[in-house]
Amino acid sequence: MVILRNGGVRVGIKSHITDEQWERIRPSIARENRRSIIIVTAAFSIMMVLMLLMSFFSSMMSRARILYLISLMLSLLLCFVAVRVKPSDERKIGFLTYVTISCLLVYSTVLGTRLNADLVATAFPAFVLASPLLFTDRRRRIILCILINTAFFVCMSLIFDNPAFVVDDIVNSCLFSAVSIGINSYMLNVKLQQEYAQLKLAELSEKDLLTGVRNRNSYEQALSEYPLRCKRSLGCVYADLNGLHELNERSGHEAGDRMLKCLSAALREAFGKEDTYRIGGDEFVVFACDLDEGQIRSKVEEARRLAEGSSCHASFGVAVSEAPNIDVAELTRRAERQMYGEKRRYYNQPGVERRGMRD
């Protein structure tokens, strides 16, 4: 088990990646594989250009000229498609990943058997060791790709190899493929663990551990992004629990924690968790893009009903700014002022204990 620390929080990663963990890291794996495809195919294209040029000066290399040319065109095509595909298109990136690996292994197979039948094949063992290390995916898919290409190499050896080299080539291909599977199984597992650990640490740095919503750090980072995300308007909801201080003194902090969880759950239900932030002890901020004030207030009332259904009372303030002149800091202050106005009305009710508040 890998144990990482982040602000005193322990993150444990098991010795294998579960299906649930894999689903969480798939987007980052796809982005990394896309970058690898672009780099590998670009480098392979440069190598094929050099090999193609050298084939005009070497009689031994000249017989592989067509292979170099076809490989160059395929690698350029793969590079072009990888550049054009969206980083979020996991299915296409996965397909391109295995096409890239297979192209490298087929190239080395044809070079080592059909075109150099009188020599021991060296390109395939090298590529079968290196190619899967360049990409990340579930172990069973990588292994299947290696086995299929190894079987293709064995068939090509039986058909085209000089009989004196058939046994050596087949033994070498099977041996290096087995080594590749072993090495890649270990390396892929370590790499996937690292990806998951990084994801968990990123979440811990942005999530409030008590309530599950985003924390102050995430709030500060997101402030500059909201005006860019909104086409028409940006709404802000400022929420503050009523009576939390008194509840903590009367019933203890565990009761107060339950109250915080109650309000955060109500806000998540009404607005979603991506735009809900706990920015202080009992203060929450929610942003809503391109909703008019009536829609936002309707969601606020929904959150209020959910919270009060669990005996959790809060004061809310709502403010809306129209694009493109959105000042998020001023918007938040307006919502906060409205919230304090509602809070004063709450504490002015008969029988409600008043606590210190800002004017």
From TrEMBL:
Gene3D superfamilies: 3.30.70.270. The chain crosses the membrane at residues 36-60, 66-83, 95-113, 119-135, 142-160. It comes from the Bacteria. The keyword Flavoprotein does not apply. InterPro entries: Diguanylate_Cyclase, GGDEF_dom, Nucleotide_cyclase, Rev_trsase/Diguanyl_cyclase. Signal peptide: none annotated. Pfam families: GGDEF. Residues 232-359 form the GGDEF domain. Keywords: Membrane, Transmembrane, Transmembrane helix. GO terms for molecular function: diguanylate cyclase activity. Coiled coil: none annotated. SUPFAM superfamilies: Nucleotide cyclase. This is GGDEF domain-containing protein. It comes from Olsenella porci. The lineage of its organism: Bacteria, Bacillati, Actinomycetota, Coriobacteriia, Coriobacteriales.
